[in-house]
């Protein structure tokens, strides 16, 4: 897999992959620690849970402004500085004396998150030739997917046996080790043409780029409409046991690795087919969500397809975005992508909450499918049309 990539670039790619694992683990880790944190500060879980919402909205709101602020920095310095901010934020989280201090620490981590996910994919693709870009992107996504499988349970286990503070401090130590590793192996990348806020209107006048953003927010909204409430759906509608739910969610995470592999193997040769698969792989299982709940095998199969499609869409449209912007604009373009995707996460969670509140949990798949269908229709008509206007032949690229 790495034979044709020089070792000096494989090593930093591995560092970026581990960094993606750490960042993704850190984002959702507090979900499994809310009870412990609440008891420490004599608060309710609903009160401490606000830090998860605030984290997501900080990422959504600050990704673009922060990237515009730092976009002219040399990439190696920016990456190491971002990792340094992340380490400090995690350390402050573990040592927080009260909840406001913990909130402030989590906000600093969210700022680091905003910058990291803006530069991770563009940086990975700059380390390799165009031929190996799908592999580089799939490695970043793999790090993120593995976090969903092993990172979150591991954080929960540490919290149960050593307390929530030790979970944050373990992340601190791990991130510090990765920071030192990257300081040794990450090359200094020559600066691309600088991007300034004056270039932003031109970027947003690109119909292909805008279409990627539209598709991203629609897909994220569709996915999280159902995914945010998958645990109660599996328990109440599909009648899964607690152990069955845990196993299914882990399998869903594993299926993301399959999506990452499919992308790295086939994107260069079957690009349009991969795009279609990412969207239809979400819509069709969600349409069958309620029916699939009638049997354990069909429900698990539907979850596996959705997990694969989610990762496939995410990495494919990051590749599409990088493909259609100048290299110097890629980090800023990715910052908008990250922010918009988080808006979709919030929107989907809200819609799913409304469906559940009104007693329609068994039908939540239809809500996600309806939004996903809008995304699919837009992609197969407008997005493919804009690709054609941009000079890309459907026949040549598929």
UniProtKB/TrEMBL annotation:
Q: Which Gene3D superfamilies match?
A: MFS general substrate transporter like domains
Q: Does the keyword Transport apply?
A: yes
Q: What is its main location?
A: membrane
Bilayer disposition of the protein: Multi-pass membrane protein
Record localization: Cell membrane
Question: So which domain of life are we looking at?
Answer: Bacteria
One GO term in the molecular function aspect is: transmembrane transporter activity
For this protein, the record's PANTHER family field holds:
PURINE EFFLUX PUMP PBUE, SUGAR EFFLUX TRANSPORTER
What name does UniProt use for this protein?
MFS transporter
To which species is this protein native? Answer: Megasphaera elsdenii
